[in-house]
Amino acid sequence: MKKATVIGLLSCLVSVNFAQQNSGKIIFEESMDLKEMIANNEQLSAFADMMPTELTFNNELLFSSTETLYRPGKEEPQKAAEGMQIEMEDKPDTYVYTNLESSKTVQQENFMGRKFLITSDKAEKQKWKLENVTKEIAGYACRRATMKDDKGEEVVAWYAPKLQISSGPKGYGQLPGMILKLETRSDSGPVAITAKDIQLGVENEIKPPKKGKKVTKEQFDKIVREKMEEFKEAREGEGNKVIIKTEER
Question: Of 44, 51, 115, 248, which residue is 20 to 30 A from 204 by alpha carbon distance?
């Protein structure tokens, strides 16, 4: 009788622990390195001593065993020299909803002041190469994986096998564990997205984004490509535009 009771208690504890690990919220810090953009732009180089070498943004990933939603978090003021204010055009404003059971994704993007809603009935296959390299992130042992993005740039992911949800920032996932750090590149330079706070067992209301013009990924890529060609000569080397304002005293 005692043996049966112990086994029952252990089963309950395992079930509770599994449920806690399969729902929650992760706070990510997205860090955008500006050194390359500043060095390649004469206008920005003139203010190099007053500008930060990176911009940071907070994002959050809500997840359950069947759905995830990556969205912007609380915005923090950007650090700059005294009397200066840093603003950025088209700052990260990405929402990515993923249904883990059907692989359906809904992505809301802000491009040149316009919102677009990109829907796919099945997420594209992410061709990861698993590597035998490890490090600790936010208290979890993580393994390294790499792949090439649509532009041929390397993407590096650090995933935690202990967190058994196959997801991560900006729609990346399809690994045997949650991605807690993602290293990519933008037009402005290197970008690192790192987990800072992991809250397990938190119940969230997860819904797909609904704002924006509905387009396919192919249509959105075409819009971006055509607009970038239009502004290529006028803004060559600027990347994602940074606006510097002087505060009046």
Answer: 115
